[in-house]
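hey team, just a heads up i'm posting the complex here instead of the shared drive bc the drive is being weird again. everything in one block, sequence lines first with there labels, then the predicted structure for the whole assembly after. its two chains so it's a bit long, scroll down
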Amino acid sequence: MNALVAEASEKEKVIITEKKMVTGAQGLLLSLLEEGVDTIFGYPGGAIMPIYDALYDFADQLKHHLVRHEQGGAHAAQGYARITGKPGVCFATSGPGATNLITGIADAQIDSTPLVCITGQVASHLLGTDAFQETDVLGVTMPVTKWNYQVTRADEIPEAIAKAFYIATSGRPGPVLIDITKDAQNAKFEFEYKKCKRISSYYPVPKLNEKAIAAAAELINNAKKPYVLWGQGVLLSNAQEDLKAFIEKAGIPAAWTILGLAGLPTDHPLNVGMLGMHGNYGPNLLTNECDVLIAVGMRFDDRVTGDLKCYARQAKIIHIEIDPAEINKNVRADVAVNADAKVALQALLPLINENKHEAWLQKFRDCAKIEYEKVIAPEILPTEGKLKMAEVMHLVSELSEGKAVIVTDVGQHQMVAMRYYNFKDTRRSNITSGGLGTMGFCLPAAMGAKVGAPDRQVIAVIGDGGFQMTLQELGCIFQYQIGVKVLILNNNFLGMVRQWQQLFHQKRYSFTEMVNPDFVGIAKAYGITANKVTQRETLESSIQAMLDHEGPYVLEVVVEKEDNVFPMVPAGDSVSNIRLS
Amino acid sequence: MAIEDYQIDLGEEKTYTIFAFTENKVGLLNRITIVFTRRHINIESITVSESEVKNVYRYTIIIKTTYAQVEKLVKQIAKQVDVLRASFYPEEETIFQEIAMYKIPMSSMINGSQVEGIVRDSNARILTVDPHYIIIEKTGHSEETRALFEKLAPFGILQFTRSGRIAITKHMKDLSTYLREQEEAYL
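-- predicted structure starts here --
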């Protein structure tokens, strides 16, 4: 049924139900409206011009943000999707426009982020002729999309878009791409829209297996040292409260992957901290001591598990996971619960006994004490020497009262932000490039997040390297006055690579030192207020000024050049071999 | 089963037959082969044709790998949106055949009775006779079509081609039953 909304009178809107002849381009935009889209990130070009022409008439309903590079558009759409839970939408033209999206699409694929990417394509009679700006976008994006489709006829557009939104958001979310030839954008057809509710060859939502739930509950009830690991699945299914109820009832310590961060407040007594290579001491060490390991909405990434041959070998594994292809992929599950995290946790709750595991929890507290004394205290509370990333993040956390949305890039600053920001707000509050580890992700993603959540304080925490990969988006931030706060932790190094060079390559600092431009000058050239801090005395007031500022702001903090992030599980090593220094 | 049984490099390598039942969509073959390419796995043979159900296509993919690996591959194939069902079987649970064609110059048929004898003994057949050549067809396992190749080689083989393996499972369950079960397992 067509659902063009038109003004019937001053007061009420009615749905016009008669069919209407529109162009493919108009049909696309009407389809987006049907899916509730109001925000687009994109960049025009030859093969997508009919769509941009139509967009001119829809500007009040579809707010388009002109990014400065299509990679920025894809990451902005990711940031928007991650904060709102709605699919992010981005537009790009054919050829280079489409290929520039690919880093963002690959990032969204590995981090399960719903994206709907629309690319223009050369006219259908030119397909395969090496026409100007022609690339096999379907072929190129196939390995990094959940689904993609090429539209060559205008009347295919509504169905393709309906399928795109359904696939992007259902089951384990992911990016989809619709490539639309220019002739399909121009051709007229009778517009009619029907939302997609089912595809015969696609089964995104498994029915709950009651036997598996009962088996899981039995393992949990008999466990002496149960341990929960949660990932982004908890956030994607909005199961934060269910996770909390579950671990509180059974008294189970719980640790997070970096994409699961902020699913539970950082200071919750059962939140024992971060897993993985630069995670906390206890959560890694005690993985190899628990007797039942309950993984909720996570996929046992190698950065979390280290050497699989020595990973939780003593434990029975319960794996709650919506994507069947993730079950038994890296770690063999004794009980596999192929389900949405929320559904599984709600089913488990009445079956598990109230319990407390005081002695077991004390082990985590003991480890936390050791880590605090050896690592954390000197990192967050130094009194002399150059500024440390950790003390900056600690202050940002205090001054923003743990309520900000923290968006990070990749590297040392990312690990430090995860470790030292004390998240209190369990709405989606942490956005990072986890699986793909994309430098240049942060600035555009933060921009998209701020557009998606204009009322929240959004802080982009970036290293000097990553900032320079997508800093052109300062132009977009300035043009639309997107009030994102950009905190550059500048150590004049590609810090994480330098840390590895120091620890594993005999300090051969091969091409990691950076001679940087004047970041404050760059920000100011874009018309963005900016400041630089080098001294401890002015750090707090500078951060406060950034937080209080209305509108976008760039704060460069010059930090210790050769700082390392500890603890660390060396790559490929056992989680038990976590190093504190 | 212990964790190490699931390591890719462990376990015995065997010939597995993967079946995928799919919609007939542009690019799907590419999506399916990417699953193998990405993991640096070579496909021994692949055939695609319409199945017993109209508009449903059957992929028959032969690979040599471990159980742990084939299990993961099949899950990745099943995960593709346009794939209805994917499954895998060891060789002994399938009945399989290949077809081979041999083109022999007519000049070598001067002692024609000899070739005709070979064809007859090999349970092959002569498909086409032309003034310049004859074409022989043989259906069988690859060892059998290879054996015939060796026997015909002295007569001069102008062209030789072998189809990929096609296979049918030994069990009695049909596709629609599988699809119904799958339907019931999901909301």
